[in-house]
Amino acid sequence: MTGARWLVTGAGGLLGRDLVTVLAGRADAEVTAATRAELDVTDPAAVRVAVRGHDVVLNTAAWTDVDGAESREADATEVNGDGVAHLARACAETGARLLHVSTDYVFAGDATQPYPEDAPTAPVNAYGRSKLAGEQAVFRLLPHTGYVVRTAWLYGAHGPNFVRTMLRLAAERPHLDVVDDQHGQPTWSYALAGRLVELAEAAGRGVAPPGAYHGTAAGRTTWYGLAREVFRRSGLDPDRIRPTSSDRFPRPARRPGYSVLGHDGWARAGLPPLPDWRAQLAEALRPGGPLLGAASPRVPPPGAAVDPSSGVPPLVAG
């Protein structure tokens, strides 16, 4: 889209920062990067002002505290549901396209085959319900210019996430017990950022129909499998990772056991699915890359168990 004007909300977060980086490589892109401090999406007047003058809005602003949402569902929904509705209304008023980032948590997590984009939604926790409210707002208010991209198991160079935590803990613990009964698709935030921009550009050319897309890596693994691959790719001994089960980590919010998403929707936009999760991880952890520098092969004292479900895995006695 020649000379397009882009607004990135949540621009200080893991994915938001990568989106700003990707757009900086588009010579003709005019980018407004709005952090949470700069734009409160729950303020409809502020949202209308912020959206005005932009052609595309990439929304990564979100309430991400999964456990906190269980006791504060109204607050989570105000951000993840009402805030998205404010953005959608503002886009409807100005004609801007909205690409909204959602989550696998809108599904029940009890499937045995990858969830297609049109699979029935049935969130099992308050966070998932709040994100589903945002999706519904996009579909209702922007039937022709609204895009929902569901992602899961994001990691990257910015902010706390599972891969960076594994690299840090590798220098602190000789062994880690990691959950092996939750299945998903580890997805590099930088790769997803590139795909979101490509989708917006395809929409601008009129070749990407609105609706739901699944922005996760191809393939599947468990948190245990991901942790072993992080160690292997970082020159560390993967046998330092040991499998454990989710029942060791009782949490306020129930987690889906199966977060594998299907990717057939990309063909509608003339785009291929994202690469396999191992290929993405290899690129992210390449020597001199954004993540490998945090790893260290030294082996310090006692083990710990890891619950990956909230981004920064809490530890219990090993």
Automatic annotation (TrEMBL):
Assigned keywords, A-Z: NADP, Oxidoreductase
This enzyme's EC code(s): 1.1.1.133
Keyword Oxidoreductase (UniProt): yes
Residue ranges annotated for the RmlD-like substrate binding domain, each copy included: 6-286
Pathway: Carbohydrate biosynthesis; dTDP-L-rhamnose biosynthesis
Primary enzyme class: oxidoreductase
Region (Disordered): 236-255, 288-318
InterPro entries noted in UniProt: dTDP_dehydrorham_reduct, NAD(P)-bd_dom_sf, RmlD-like-bd
GO-annotated molecular function: dTDP-4-dehydrorhamnose reductase activity
Gene3D superfamilies per UniProt: NAD(P)-binding Rossmann-like Domain, UDP-galactose 4-epimerase, domain 1
Family: Belongs to the dTDP-4-dehydrorhamnose reductase family.
Protein purpose: Catalyzes the reduction of dTDP-6-deoxy-L-lyxo-4-hexulose to yield dTDP-L-rhamnose.
UniProt-listed PANTHER family: DTDP-4-DEHYDRORHAMNOSE REDUCTASE (PTHR10491), METHIONINE ADENOSYLTRANSFERASE 2 SUBUNIT BETA (PTHR10491:SF4)
Protein name stated in the entry: dTDP-4-dehydrorhamnose reductase
Gene name linked to the record: rfbD
